[in-house]
Amino acid sequence: MLRFDQVTWSPGEEPVLETLNLTVSAGQLVVMLGVSGVGKTSVLRLSAGLIKPGSGAVVNGFASTAMVFQEPRLMPWATALSNVAMVLERLDPARRAEVAATWLGRLGFGDGDMGKRPEQLSGGMRARVAIARAFATGADLVLMDEPFASLDLGLRRNLQVEVRRLVRQTGVAVLFVTHDLTEAVSLADRIVVLAGRPAQVVADLRQTPPERISAVWEAAAALSVRPELASVVAGLGA
Fold it and tell me: Residue 184 and residue 69: Cα distance in Å, rounded?
């Protein structure tokens, strides 16, 4: 389990997060929803141990953690296959390419695409390489920082479905941050709403992700009128 207990964090004099409480359990896909700049990425960095809280405690009880960033951060000189294989140092060299190919295949790559460098891949394919790389590490917690923000709606929807499928198949826990209410509804087992300055969790909503895009819009519309989401919805897209 990942647990935040009364966490405060500040990069300077003014705190960004204050008395933040949050849990993420194995097999859960938790989406943190909030406006741009509210502190969602800071929560991910604290989760990964990249920064330390000013007060309170962050306890990451997972065996290993991987992260998917807003930009795929692929090595430009390496093929899609090599970008995934390079994180598999725990395996014998002969096995790395095999495991990397398996993960890329699960995310829709054919043999002809695995040998392409990032510049030869579409934005959606680059995002798939980054996701494959994170899951291939064997991490049991994957942190995702708005990885689909630059993609069009159709690609975003396809990748949301694929991430949900991977979570169900692997039992990995995912903490996914977004400022897109419909993306949160599409993905989440739980939606955690981060709002305020300094930011706190103002709502923790359990839900069943809709399977159809029309149901996603209907569910997002229903959530948007809830009082605990008012401050977030007012700032979405700002």
Answer: 17
